[in-house]
Design brief:
The chain is α/β, with parallel strands linked by helices. The chain has a domain of 161 residues: Spore Coat Polysaccharide Biosynthesis Protein SpsA, Chain A, CATH 3.90.550. 36% of the residues lie in helices and 21% in strands. The strands form two sheets. The protein has a seven-stranded mixed β-sheet, with helices on both faces. Strand 4, helix 2 and strand 5 form a beta-alpha-beta unit.
């Protein structure tokens, strides 16, 4: 042993017994640091038909430390499915809203339940998602290559591929630094306005963004869901786009008012 060399001992816990792995010098190239905590937040409403596949993928993704499932006042069997999943994986946390508050509120409820510095946001009804897709969303954030990723569908279904190509800022599939949520307009993020409010907050605060292609992934459109039917699904989609337009208006209005107030203050100097 070199004189004055400082050694550390690495342990791990196995079957309740603390076991020594090895002793290494502090000057060793062995990396003793762990990755930052990562929490997935999955908001959902009446997703009993679709959520099981998502839960299986999340369970198989070992990079996730916490998986927060937020039921936004579902009236079907969604909560029962979530509770069964939580009994098989200790990373699962289930949050239940008594009434439907909208996607934005569900995500904020999930955020309040974690201190993880990196978040994964996903829709609950995704098809063909794999752990590799999840890692592709998170790796650039973990490695400090960007502050937020936006996952865009490609090669899944033409309808969802096209919508992502036209309006990439509306994607609900993201990896991001959790601190970004501090800057989102709570008013604008109500309902389905969350993605617009998040994208605008990142832009206004200078956070870096990166597009990530999610090959083969898609989700059913509102009007194609058998549990809703065409007309109910179409009205649901119309309401969604109205909330998106409202969010865009509110965010740009707040930005204009802040700019107006700034220049007004300058005029008083």
């Amino acid at each position: 042993m070199a004189s004055g060399e400082f050694y550390v001992t690495v342990f791990f816990l196995s079957d309740g017994i603390l076991k020594e792995v090895q002793r290494v010098p502090m000057s060793s190239s062995i990396n003793l640091q762990t990755k930052p905590l990562i929490a997935a937040i999955i908001p959902m409403y009446n997703e009993e038909v679709h959520v099981v596949g998502m839960l299986e993928v999340l369970h198989a993704t070992d990079i996730l430390d916490e998986i927060i499932l937020v039921d936004d006042g579902s009236s079907d069997g969604t909560v029962d499915i979530l509770l069964r999943a939580a009994s098989t994986d200790q990373r699962f946390k289930v949050i239940q809203h008594e009434k439907n508050g909208g996607k934005g509120q569900a995500i904020f409820s999930g955020w309040a339940a974690t201190t993880a510095p990196i978040l994964l946001l996903l829709d609950a009804d995704l098809k063909n998602l794999t752990p590799d897709h999840i890692r592709s969303l998170l790796d650039p954030v973990i490695n400090h290559q960007t502050d937020m990723t936006l996952g865009l569908f490609k090669g899944g279904r033409l309808s969802t591929d096209l919508s992502h190509r036209i309006t990439p800022f509306l994607t609900g599939q993201r990896g991001l630094r959790a601190e970004l949520l501090k800057y989102i307009s709570r008013e604008a993020s109500g309902g389905y306005g969350f993605e617009v409010a998040l994208t605008m907050a990142a832009r206004q605060k200078g956070y870096r963004k990166r597009i990530v292609t999610l090959k083969g992934v898609w989700h059913p459109s509102s009007e194609s869901r058998p549990e809703r039917g065409f007309w109910l699904g179409a009205s649901w989609k119309a309401r969604m786009y109205l909330q998106i337009i409202r969010a865009w208006y509110l965010v740009t209005r707040e930005r204009f008012q802040n700019s107006k107030a700034f220049f007004s203050d300058i005029g008083k100097l």
